[in-house]
Amino acid sequence: MTPIHVIGGGLAGTEAAWQIAQMGVPVTLWEMRPATPTPAHHTGDLAELVCSNSFGARAVDRATGLLQQELREVNSLVIRVADAQAVPAGGALAVDRAHFSQELTRILAQHPLVTLRREEVREIPPGMVIFATGPLTSPALAAQLQRLTGQEYLSFFDAASPIVLGESIDRDRVFLASRYDKGEAAYLNCPLDRPEYEAFWQALINAEQAPLKDFEESEKKFFEACLPVEELARRGMDTLRFGPMKPVGLRDPRHPDRRAHAVVQLRPEDRAGNLWNLVGFQTNLRWGEQQRVFRLIPGLAQAEFVRYGVMHRNTFLNAPKILHPTLQLRDYPHLFAAGQLTGTEGYIAAVAGGWLAGVNAVRFAQGLPLLTLPPTTMMGALLHFISTAEAKFFQPMPANFGILPPLPTPVKPKAARYQAYSQRALADLAAWQAELFPQMVPH
Questions:
Q1: Of the ranges 149-158, 185-194, 273-282, which is most confident?
Q2: What is the CATH number that goes with domain 163-309?
Q3: Residue 199, SS3?
């Protein structure tokens, strides 16, 4: 067969290429890194994680946890490697960032039906194509897509958190724990009393930010889930204490009767504990300002930064105008799109789109009916939403229970309702699989 082209070696493209190859169809996977870098990536590995090393909560009564489990049921490669490369993160699925990407690169490079091309795609190749170029699509290809669809790109700014060297953290000032003792004690916690917090807050809101290129100030948009910590702080002195610095559920075992005014959490980036990510501290501060301000946090006075927080412009398609729920382009059925380019938000959502685009590209090539997932599943609801939302007001959407169809009978409280959503989703996914893929064995 003529190879299917997958453009972009991120999470969505990696998953799509693997699914195509596993279905016995040759695939050419195009990745422009490292020859052509992006503003946010640091390596040439496939599926490099840019913003965080966390895929979100594991529990199936959480939206990200349900999406993870659905991907396990349909034999996703990315979630399998994520599970194998997991690092301690309490109730979340976080991975050793470097080993995760390196393992996916190794697997794809060794597959006999996968051809990995390390060059920028400037023109859309002939034949079947999946666009999985993510929010950092190269200008040349973005212009091609814009001409093809006749649609202006939508945009927002996204940010990443800094990473510090583990040996530079003052362990006498921090304590190891997970919130509410869920899972293993996996986070280093930096407690702040009220004067320390107020001094930190003042320094943060007055720190100098790096200039944002390509946008006028009046056009500046942020995605709420990745709001820079300094922007969040400007909403009020206590905003951080109810957000990334909330102290609830965290008790210092050295001072069990003392509750911190605020807490900064550090999550391990690797299994050895050499690198630690400042959770929720995505930022657009200048690098020198990051050093000055974040070293005010107890335990980080001598912190060595191995990666500073950065901000970059994300672009995405107006999916409701362009895409079917099958992830086909409405006017070009041989073309598909997947991942953050389509307006899904979050790592695990990108994987879901890659899975469906890969499977449907093969089915289209073979003349088979294309698939849509049950709308009661998180995968199905998310991909249905991006293709049917109000185009005029379309913004990136993460996995959440609000996009699922209501339960036949209302369930209270919220925890029980989310559990019911999850049970229905997994049951409906199993029935869908049994009908369409009786040979598929969940892992």
A1: 185-194
A2: 2.40.30.260
A3: helix
